[in-house]
């Protein structure tokens, strides 16, 4: 099937089997191997990308469902110099093996937009908003991204510094 | 994954027609269906993508609310009207899955998410739901995330979702466009089917029947709570969950509608439980009587014994909070 979409601000066209997941299309057909396949079943978040600005698990979506969509992967989060979030991950050691990192970065980028839009979370005491990115809010909002190296302290510090709610260290 | 034809639906009528063919399925967000297709638990030959059909988003409908079938779980949970007037629905949605999954999952697909029974997922084992007549490997097997209410001697698979539990307590209805084109509205009670002798049949839907919307009537109770107990704090299915919609008048319970997750083969509500509560002054004795009524027909397996006392404790805690 023919598929046209935008990946990291570049128009792309593929002729692709409908079975191919968005993740496999990005990795194996467009050779953007930043997005990772941890579980392939929506259980780890390593494959997180932004579709029209919102974070999703690219392993649980078919590429052909994304005709006309704007996809951003970890490769597209910055132009050249690391984004503030990426720089904060480096500064705070937000990774060890790095396998979960592309998903963490895309997920955190989407999550920060969600909190800016005033979306509530399971951790929110009331549903009125707006919300501050406390540690409880951050843990809940990022629970879809597992880190087998358990670098959560560094990941949390990096995200909170970027959101302006962390201790400046 | 088995090969299939992919069709992007242009409108609801042609979508229904395409999905009424043999072995065809709708796909919404795909977060449940694709998972199952990768494992070949489900193997449709045609996928009809309804995710871009516009069923009117979220719109006021008299003093109620109409939620189009393709609205994502995130958008429903964040909607200002839902947060203000039907908070138990926001809470239930926010307790489910992850931010990424809620951004993709649709209202229609969420209603039809299938059980997480590990034997349903494992195509090498017997499962009457996956392969009718093959038996049930869960009975006498490893049980934890299984039902204790509404089970049959054919199936103990749990309905795993959260959203539908809140919808039961809110007396929501489901709008369906039948494949022949007629529109029908179902109560939550009538929509889901108990496993009985046919655990493969889970709802009233026939092939090609399209969910178009969920309708929320004005809530009958202003005290709304969703409490979910699980093995980890987030990103996990319910062991037990309780959705309560309660109204108090003069120190007595004037309205009580209690939905239960983690317990039933379908999103659970027992009118007898509600009836035990209505008209009473809140007390430990009344709450215990409600729990006795809920659990009178429970059939736990070895691995699900813990749900009996857990359901009692969670129900009591929720009722204490809702009636305080
Ligand atoms: C890791 C993980 C954790 C999860 N945790 C939770 C949790 O804690 N709580 C919870 O409630 N859920 C949880 N879920 C399940 C999630 O909520 C469902 O996968 C999701 O809601 C399904 O919606 P969908 O649109 O992606 O459905 P799809 O996968 O697209 O479809 C599901 C079914 O619905 C049918 N369908 C879709 N749309 C329509 C329509 N309009 N009319 C008729 N039929 C239709 C499809 O044919 C299919 O049979 C979890 C999922 C994963 C992967
Ligand atoms: S690879 Fe997609 S969630 Fe694990
Ligand atoms: S850094 Fe190794 S999985 Fe997160």
From TrEMBL, chain A:
Gene3D superfamilies hit by this protein: 3.10.20.30, [2Fe-2S]-binding domain (1.10.150.120)
User: Which GO-annotated molecular functions does the record name?
Assistant: 2 iron, 2 sulfur cluster binding; metal ion binding; oxidoreductase activity, acting on the aldehyde or oxo group of donors
> Which superkingdom does the taxonomy of this entry point to?
Bacteria
Keyword Oxidoreductase belongs to the record: yes
Under the heading Pfam families, the entry gives:
Fer2, Fer2_2
What InterPro entries does the record tag this protein with? 2Fe-2S-bd, 2Fe-2S-bd_dom_sf, 2Fe-2S_ferredoxin-like_sf, 2Fe-2S_ferredoxin-type, 2Fe2S_fd_BS, Aldehyde_Oxdr_Iron-Sulfur, Beta-grasp_dom_sf
Keywords attached to this Swiss-Prot or TrEMBL record, sorted alphabetically, are:
2Fe-2S, Iron, Iron-sulfur, Metal-binding, Oxidoreductase
Q: In what residue span(s) does the 2Fe-2S ferredoxin-type domain sit?
A: 1-77
What is the protein name stated in its UniProt record? (2Fe-2S)-binding protein
Species in which this protein is naturally found: Roseivivax isoporae LMG 25204
Lineage from the top down?
Bacteria, Pseudomonadati, Pseudomonadota, Alphaproteobacteria, Rhodobacterales
UniProtKB/TrEMBL annotation, chain B:
The lineage's top-level taxon is Bacteria
* Keyword DNA damage recorded: no
Q: Any keyword Flavoprotein?
A: yes
Q: Which UniProt keywords are listed?
A: FAD, Flavoprotein
Q: Which InterPro entries match?
A: CO_DH_flav_C (IPR005107), CO_DH_flav_C_dom_sf (IPR036683), Diverse_Substr_Oxidored (IPR051312), FAD-bd_PCMH (IPR016166), FAD-bd_PCMH-like_sf (IPR036318), FAD-bd_PCMH_sub1 (IPR016167), FAD-bd_PCMH_sub2 (IPR016169), Mopterin_DH_FAD-bd (IPR002346)
GO terms of molecular function: FAD binding; oxidoreductase activity
SMART domains assigned to the protein according to its UniProt record, in alphabetical order: CO_deh_flav_C
Q: Which residues form the FAD-binding PCMH-type domain?
A: 1-221
UniProt cross-references to Gene3D superfamilies, sorted A to Z: 3.30.465.10, CO dehydrogenase flavoprotein, C-terminal domain, Uridine Diphospho-n-acetylenolpyruvylglucosamine Reductase, domain 2
Name of protein: Molybdopterin dehydrogenase
Question: What organism is listed for this UniProt entry?
Answer: Roseivivax isoporae LMG 25204
